[in-house]
Amino acid sequence: MSAHKGLTHKFYLLLILSMLVASCGTQVERVDVKEEHDLSGAWNDTDSQLVSEEMINDMLTRSWLNDYSNKYRRKPTVIVGTIRNLSHEHINVNTFVSDIERAMINSGRITFVASNQERGEIRSEREDQDLHAREDTRKPMGQELGADFMLQGSINTIIDMEGKTQLRYYQVDLTLISLADNRKVYLGQKKIKKLVKNSNLRL
Amino acid sequence: MLCKVRHRPIWLLFYFLVIFTTFTLSGCASYSDKFQSIEKELSEHDPEDALKELEKQDHSSSDELLYHLNKTMLLRMQKDFRGSNEQIELAKQFIEEYAATSVTETTASFTVNDTMRTYTATPLEQIMLNTYAAMNYLESGELDAARVEALQTDLRIRQLLESDPENVLHIDPFARYLTGMIYEDQGEWSDAMIAYRKAYQAYLAHAQIYDVSVPEYLKFDLLRMAKRNGLKNELKKLKLEFGIVSPKKTTKNGGQGEVVIFFHKSLAPVLIEQSVTQIDPGTGILIRFSLPYYQSRPSRLSHIRVMHNEQMENSQAVEHLDLIAKKNLEDALPAITARAFARAVTKYSISRNVQRQDDLVGLLFNVMTVMTEQADTRSWLTLPAEVLMARLKLPIGEQTISIELIDIGGSVTYSTELKNVVIETGKRRYYSYHWIAPTMTRH
User: Fold this and answer.
1) How far apart are CA A148 and CA A146, in angstroms?
2) What percent of chain A clears pLDDT 70, i.e. is strictly above it?
């Protein structure tokens, strides 16, 4: 009798377990964008924001900025050039560039001009205004602000691994180059290390 | 009698339920059998309809990866490189997620059959994921993204070698060769030289296992990179080794660019189930033993010939997926056989226990154990059997290239033109052709 009771209990236990497994469907939860979530160990939005803010803050505290401001009595004009992804991951460089641009503009210490890709649309709009806009609101050609410096950079990775453990080492390099004479006025570097341990077993 | 029923172990009931469910859900058709309708569309050179056919089919969660892998190739065949790469990224995530050994699936593979395990691709298929992603990016002109895939290829080979250091088949020569071409396109001469060297070593190592030779193109690439890197001694040694006195093809002249055409020939071999069913004369219990084996898809295609004005080049084989897959299975067969044997013993002993308690239930149970015994015939069936490469040095500007498909008898079976190929100084343009044998029905 007790064996029969035990069997019934085990059957119910199995049934409950099956129901629990079946209930593991898609779940959606809203999270704060400021919260850090590192799911896979890959480069993510938090890395992009932290690196861009830290590097731009570092760039703006260096001597080139004061040197320029003292010499020309105005804020330097900067343009973002190419940031190359030389890493092991398909990193969305556009997001990183946006983070850099935001950090630079919000600092208020430099003037920032539209990049090569963005300029095309602006120029086309100006051409269009030339034909269709009222004269007092029309923006003339040839009044663009020329950049003094171009920011270029790259994202590199080195991956070391053993078994299911990976040490991911990200290195972001930014270089600010004077457009007048090709002088490199700032070299910035930021490194991130991530230890990613994957499980050997799953259910 | 009642007493016997009471003492019947819970796992017997559970096992019965698992087998019944598996049988009901999966039916008897193997994965490769279910794929025949897609093959039919492909044999008619209609990847669009083949994709529709793939989308129509049910995909169990354990076969989800195969859906992504096949969709990758079917989209690529339609020149949808972005869509193809999206599928590749999903496939990579899936492989990473399911890389850990599953306790329940391993148990099921020892008790029901090997198809109970989530498919996570063979080492060759995993490398091909990066290789095809790289080719997709190269054909889209996204060099930096192709470079990411080159780095990932290197990482994947390192991972595979870590778990099986002696297996030279993990070092795929074409994957290595393509990474070298990517580095060279980026102007990273040193990395290109290293990758070409590794590719050369891999071709030599593979030549010890199956019939493959070092592509002539690679020899000239090695000489060019050795020269560019100033490796005089190595250049001298390689010239002697290759028997090349004057490396005429090694110059990448100003005012010239290059077109690289990959020819993806036929389809990879298909896994077929081979089963043996025996009856135990003492108990009347049936025992079934199923193992997979590879069957090549017959093809009459040989190679392609590319032409531009007076220039003519025949394609050279750079990857033998058919042969590598077969060698990989040969290596994996002892483990597959051991699992099949363990299953046969388990199924026999349980059938025997059930039979002792009730003959009819025992018979039904035994039939079910036999019917659920299936070989795992899952594989990336839309991969080609071989990849061939043809290259032409062309003057800058817009060019038209003639391409001829040659059959094994040496006759031209199909010809086409590749138009509007814009050649830039010192740059390469990449193109692919997938040709699947029209007589693809299996025997």
Assistant:
1) 7
2) 81
Percentage helix, strand, coil for chain A under 3-state DSSP, each rounded to 5:
40, 30, 30
The pTM of this model reads 0.86
CB contact under 8 A, A14 and B148: no
- Spatial distance between the Cα atoms of B349 and B354, rounded to a whole number of angstroms: 9
B85: three-class secondary structure by DSSP = helix
Quick one: pLDDT band at residue B132, thresholds 50, 70, 90? very high
**In a 3-state reduction of DSSP, which class is residue B113?**
coil
Give the minimum alpha-carbon distance from B154 to chain A in angstroms, rounded to a whole number: 10
CB A38 within 8 A of CB A46: yes
Under DSSP, the state recorded for B115 is G
Q: Tell me, what's the pLDDT at A171?
A: 96
> How far off is chain A from B22, nearest CA to CA, in Å?
15
- CB-CB: which of B102, B144, B148 is closest to A88? B148
Q: Which of B6, B100, B151 comes nearest A200 by C-beta? A: B100
Looking at this predicted complex, what is its ipTM?
A: 0.82
- What CA–CA distance (Å, rounded) separates B409 from B395? 33
- The model's confidence at residue B1, banded by pLDDT at 50, 70 and 90, is very low
Instruction: Please give the C-alpha separations between residue B430 and each of B131, B174, B267, B319, in angstroms, as whole numbers.
Output: 14, 15, 21, 17
**Are residues A87 and A159 in contact, defined by beta-carbon separation less than 8 angstroms?**
no
Contacts of A7 in chain B (CB under 8 A): 6, 10
Dihedral Cα B38, B43, B49, B54, nearest 10 deg = 20
Residues 6+ apart with CB under 8 A from A111: A75, A76, A77, A78, A145
What confidence tens digit (pLDDT) does each residue in B256-277 have? 999 999 999 999 999 999 999 9
Of A3, A163, A202, which is closest to B102 when you measure between CB atoms?
A202
Chain B nearest-CA distance from A203, in A, is: 5
Tell me which residue has tokens 């009698």: B1
Residue A202 and residue B152: Cβ atoms within 8 Å?
no
From edge to edge, which strands make up the β-sheet containing A165-178?
A111-112, A77-86, A149-162, A165-178, A184-197
Contacts of residue B189, defined as CB under 8 A and 6 or more positions apart, other chains included, come to B183, B225, B228, B229
Name the band, by pLDDT with cuts 50, 70 and 90, for residue B149. very high
Q: Say if the Cβ atoms of A4 and B6 lie within 8 Å.
A: yes
Please, which residues have CB within 8 angstroms of residue B93's CB and are 6 or more apart in sequence? none
Query: Token pair of A146, please?
Result: 């020329």
- pLDDT at residue A200, as a whole number: 81
Q: Are B374 and B113 in contact (CB under 8 A)?
A: yes
Distance from the Cα of B281 to chain A's closest Cα (Å) equals 34
Lowest mean pLDDT among A49-58, A93-102, B25-34, B298-307: B25-34
Residues 121 through 180 of chain B touching chain A, CB cutoff 8 Å:
144-145, 147-148, 151-152, 155, 158-159, 162
Using CA atoms of B216, B198, B153, B269 in order, give the dihedral in degrees to the nearest 10: 50
